[in-house]
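USER:
I wish I could look at a protein chain and see how it folds. I am handing you a single protein, as its sequence and its fold in token form. As I understand it, each token names a local backbone shape. I hope you can help me see how the letters and the tokens relate. The protein I mean follows directly.
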Amino acid sequence: MRKLDVVAAVLLVVGGINWGVVGLTGSDIVGTIFGNLSPVSRTVYLLVGVAALYQAVQWKAIQQRWQPAFATK
């Protein structure tokens, strides 16, 4: 599950950077690389959305998985 946590975090960073660039410049990096609303760019957007849902739903479980065993609560 920790690998899935990392993949989801990376996808969220990619999505966040893309939206930051959209907000600053109006250009879409994913759309520029893969084509506006091409099947590949839509897949990237879908994966970023799924990663966000995963992070939101699994928030507490992710925190517990990444907490060191010796940490006190």
Observations:
- The CA atoms of residues 5 and 62 lie 7 Å apart.
- The chain has one domain: 2-64.
- Residues 2-64 form one domain.
